[in-house]
Amino acid sequence: INLFFPSLQGKPRPKIIWMKDGQTLESKDVGIRNSTSDTILFIRKAELHHSGAYEVTLQIENMTDKVAITMQIIDKPGPPQNIKLVDVWGFNAALEWTPPQDDGNAQILGYTVQKADKKTMEWYTVFDHYRRTNCVVSDLIMGNEYFFRIFSENLCGLSETAATTKNPAYIQKTGTTYKPPSYKEHDFSEPPKFTHPLVNRSVIAGYNATLSCAVRGIPKPKIFWYKNNMDLSGDAKYRMFSKQGVLTLEIRKPTPFDGGCYTCKAVNECGEAEIECRLDVRGNH
Fold first, then answer.
1. Pick from 78, 9, 57, 3: nearest CA to 33
2. Lowest mean pLDDT, pick from 64-68, 91-95, 179-183, 194-198
3. Which of 28, 157, 205, 242 is most buried when burial is the number of CB atoms within 10 A of its CB?
């Protein structure tokens, strides 16, 4: 990972100080390379503990300027925990589990549930991108035995390993009818909540700039962007993206006029949330 800040200006040559979470950077696995026109922070093998708030300060005598960036390193999650075969009736099997102990430093987006006949042990996907931590697998074949396994999923993908049931579920051949217990339908709806904030930025005029944050909410929130409380919808200067909860506003070739307070607002039927940051646009001379 390289964090690159070009066009350092100032005479005499500025003193450059890198900080992480308010502390001077002294880690052996983080390198810093400075030249007359730029400064580069490079991490050869990024790990989760490298996540945090980084800040570079330029100092000339008693004058300073700062740039801050928040970096989140993510990895694949661990497998779900405590998988249980809760019940078997008719052609159905009920499963329960709990979220993984290690989420890979990113929100768990769902689970992949698979089944395998004990005779062949070939795995077939029953559910993918499944949001709950319990399910009923149906359409099983009478007289067969089944194992089940579950993978966790985040932005990096599926967990390397799965949680697997210890004992198989036997689908009895008897014709007796079984009435499964009634499960109260759980309300999974939740109001919007920003899980990653907008960060104040200082950019150079003429170069495309982006502002990013992350939000979650069920049902999926509608997103609105504002600059100084003015709605940016329909303005060709701005492009708005939303992918798996990560929201991005792209500002095409900003000028100093585009500086100001930017707000992202998320709304669903359960409520709303908003977050803001400040964008400063410097001249390129």
1. 3
2. 179-183
3. 205
Burial (0-12, 13-18, 19+ Cβ within 10 Å), 69: middle
| pLDDT tens-digit series, residues 42-96 | 887 877 788 888 888 888 878 888 888 888 888 899 999 999 999 999 899 999 9
Please spell the DSSP secondary structure of 253-280, one letter per residue: S--GGG-EEEEEEEEETTEEEEEEEEEE
Strand bridging mode 52-60 / 63-71: antiparallel
84-171 placed in CATH 2.60.40.10: yes
For 197, phi and psi rounded to 5 degrees? -80, 165
Altogether, the residues listed in the chain come to a count of 285
Q: How far apart are CA 136 and CA 88, in angstroms?
A: 9
**Domain 189-284, what fold?**
Immunoglobulin-like (2.60.40)
Distance CA 275, CA 229 (A): 12
Neighbours of 118 (CB within 10 A): 12
Q: Which pair of tokens denotes residue 35?
A: 């030249």
Q: Residues of CATH 2.60.40.10 domain(s) within the chain?
A: 1-71, 84-171, 189-284
The structure tokens listed for 161 are 């390993």
For CA atoms 117, 119, 121, 124, give the dihedral sign: negative
Distance spanning both ends of the chain, measured CA to CA: 28
Q: Would you say the pTM of this structure is higher than 0.70?
A: no
107-151 residue pLDDT tens:
899 999 999 999 999 999 999 999 999 999 999 998 899 999 999
> Superfamily assignment of 1-71 in CATH?
Immunoglobulins (2.60.40.10)
Quote the CA–CA distance of 183 and 87 in Å, as a whole number: 12
